[in-house]
Amino acid sequence: MAVEKEQEDIIRFEGVKKAFGAGCVLDGVDFTVHRGETFALVGPSGTGKSVTLKHMVRLLTPDDGNVFVGDVIVNQSSGHALEKVRDRFGYLFQGGALLAWMSVAENIALPLLEKTQLTQAEIDHRVAEVLDMVGMAHDGDKRPSEISGGMKKRAGLARAIVTNPDIVLYDEPTSGLDPVTSRTIDSLIDRLREETQITSVVVTHDLHSALAIAHRIAVLQDGKIIEISTPAEFVESRNEQVVRFLESQYITKRGAWEDA
Length: 260
Prior knowledge:
Elements: E1 9-20, E2 23-34, E3 38-42, H1 49-56, E4 64-69, E5 72-73, H2 79-86, E6 89-92, H3 104-115, H4 120-133, H5 149-161, E7 167-171, H6 179-196, E8 199-204, H7 207-213, E9 216-221, E10 224-229, H8 231-234, H9 240-248
Parallel strand pairs: 3-8, 3-9, 6-7, 7-8
Antiparallel strand pairs: 1-2, 1-4, 4-5, 9-10
């Protein structure tokens, strides 16, 4: 999945630092995300991957450094300006975050009810459209308790894209899923990016997923980005920490990424 060198940067981190008490989570993080690419942020559990995502929409504010979305410094934005930035994002939460007392369709409709002036008929049409996109055209009337974990992730993704965002943030999209379902989610993420040209930022500890869908992979270790590379470059890395991470998930140098 090669990306052209001259790409417009849609997200940029410059020297971002974040600590919680005495614990430094992000220690001068720098990276850019290109418009239209899938950018995977990987690393062991507890290294600050989800914390990084939350900075993009100012659910957290850096102690030092800046986070840009386009030309906007997100950590200096508030009020209407911050709301405009957040409207550019869809967010797939790790657990799906569906409201148990609502149907799948009602969950997906929530952002449209809160953020748009669409009529109920227009909302129903858009919800049906995204349900079809994620392969759940006949499941809108079901409750979250009536669907599988993989279907909850797909429903959460439908809700994330229902407002036609520029950027979708994925927090551990394959967490808790069996390998077959995980690869189904990977294929869905990749297909949606191809069909809609959405920019995707995927936080994951699942290297199989990152290698399957990402244009570039960044490794977060001890609060710093230690490597950013394409999947083909990643599996050839000589960085000792990257090599250990690959070996821990039984990743070899052979795979689909050879043709990237």
